[in-house]
Every structure is written in C-alpha cells, then in structure tokens.
Amino acid sequence: MNSEPISYAGGCLCGAVRYAASGEPIVSGLCYCRDCRRASGSAFIPFMLFDAAAIHFSGETVQFRSPALRGGEATRNSCPKCGGLVFGGVVGVDEDHTIYAGTLDEPSHFAPVVAIFTRDRPEWVTVPPGLVSFETMPD
Ligand SMILES: [Zn+2]
C-alpha cells in the first residue's frame, strides 16, 4: 500500500480525553448489546478494536466496570468533565482497547465489518447492509 496510513484520532466532547492510534484496527463493528445501549444512551455503539501498543491516550477518565458476558469485567472510560464515553479497557493493563468510533475526529474513517449482539438489537434500529452479523460475540 502506497497510500498514507489513516489517522485514527479523537476524543470526548470537551477535548480533555484524547487518543491517537497507529495502524489499522483489529476489527471494526457495531455492538447492539444492552450494556452498550445503556452506557451510551444510544441504539448501538460503533467500535474499533486496537492493540494496546498501537494506541496512546491522554487525559484522566472515570472508569465504570460491569460484568462481561464472557466472565470478568468490562471497563468503560468516560470524561469526568463532559461525560463523553470514549474507550473500553484499562490503560496499562489490558492488551487491547475498544475505541467508541463516534468519538473520531474523522468519522468517515470508520468502516464497520461486523455487527455483534444482534440478539439484543431493538427492532427500531437496522443493521447496515454488508455487515457480518453475530447473535452475540464472535470467537
Ligand atoms: Zn470531556
């Protein structure tokens, strides 16, 4: 590939929490699970998964932990000032991080390929055509 790498940078509403990722996401998709809906107040969360080594965060966050489907805990980070939900995982601990793609500076850089937890999808929200759907979490 000769083209310039796409920049995946973004942050919260007030700008106190920021991130910048290098390289391409491991996977990009839409999550319709109940927890993501409740955490965001929206119909689904668009996400990108990055290796922890490929992403840099700045700014303090508030962490909220909830039981994860596969055991353990899911951690969601939001800005203590504006409340914007920005990313998942514990910085310095987890091997990868979920970025909530609605926070991208350039939202057109997001290209979802999967839809997960479609069993929890409300009937009033559709899955875009062309995505590979999973009832829960793919292996
Ligand atoms: Zn903020």
Strand content: 35-45%
Number of strand segments? 11
The top level CATH class name: Mainly Beta
Integer count of domains: 1
Mean pLDDT: 94
Major sheet characteristics: 8 strands, mixed
Cα distance, first to last residue? 29 Å
Written description of the protein model:
- It contains one helix and eleven strands; from the N terminus they run βββαββββββββ.
- It has 139 residues and is mainly β.
- The chain has a single domain (8-133), classed as Beta Complex (Metal Binding Protein, Guanine Nucleotide Exchange Factor, Chain A).
- The strands form two sheets. It has an eight-stranded mixed β-sheet with strand order 6-7-8-9-4-3-10-11. A three-stranded antiparallel β-sheet has the order 1-2-5, with no helix packed on it.
- Strand 1 (8-11) and strand 2 form a beta hairpin.
- The structure holds zinc ion.
- Zinc ion binds at residues 12-14, 16-17, 79, 81-82, 84.
Layout: helices, strands, pairs:
Blueprint (H helix, E strand, L loop, with lengths): L7 E4 L6 E4 L5 E5 L2 H7 L4 E7 L3 E4 L3 E6 L5 E6 L6 E4 L7 E5 L13 E3 L15 E2 L6
Parallel strand pairs: 3-10, 10-11
Antiparallel strand pairs: 1-2, 2-5, 3-4, 4-9, 6-7, 7-8, 8-9
